[in-house]
């Protein structure tokens, strides 16, 4: 599988890079109202999860698990949302989103209409915890990729 011209995840990082490895990267996505929105992006262009061989599928899901666990440990969210849609960007990536009962869309999905404004102070509280969560993500992801 090679890079696909015009694919935003082949052409660039797709957000602020938290971890860059040989096979995947983790980025923090700038999504208004969702301070802890991450993507695990497979490095090579692959439209579907089944395009990966068995070992790479395991590595990819272990990376998703690491991101989820670090968010749970550091942020104590109400829920973690995982999604691999790929309808808008057909390059294999997983959304890992820490959700809170106070967020603008909860309990609806992040792509639904907002139900309320996100409280600025609570968003700032979560943002203040992200450096520690991201440092732990990077440490643990590096161990995964040897």
Automatic annotation (TrEMBL):
Superkingdom assignment: Bacteria
Boundaries of every HIT domain copy: 40-106
GO molecular function, one term: catalytic activity
InterPro entries referenced in this protein's UniProt entry, alphabetically: HIT-like, HIT-like_sf
Motif Histidine triad motif location, chain numbering: 91-95
Protein name in UniProt: DeoR faimly transcriptional regulator
Organism (species): Variovorax paradoxus
């Amino acid at each position: 599988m090679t890079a696909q011209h015009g694919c935003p995840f082949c052409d660039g990082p797709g957000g602020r890079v938290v971890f860059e490895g040989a096979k995947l990267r983790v980025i923090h996505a700038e999504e208004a109202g969702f301070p802890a929105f991450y993507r695990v992006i497979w490095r090579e262009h692959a439209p579907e999860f089944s395009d990966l061989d068995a070992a790479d599928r395991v590595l990819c899901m272990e990376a998703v698990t690491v991101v989820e666990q670090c968010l749970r440990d550091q942020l104590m969210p109400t829920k973690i949302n995982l999604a691999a849609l790929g309808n808008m960007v057909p390059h294999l990536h997983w959304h890992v989103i820490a959700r809170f009962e106070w967020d603008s869309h909860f309990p609806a999905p992040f792509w639904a209409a907002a139900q309320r404004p996100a409280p600025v102070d609570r968003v700032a509280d979560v943002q203040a915890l992200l450096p520690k969560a991201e440092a732990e993500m990077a440490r643990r992801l590096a161990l995964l990729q040897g």
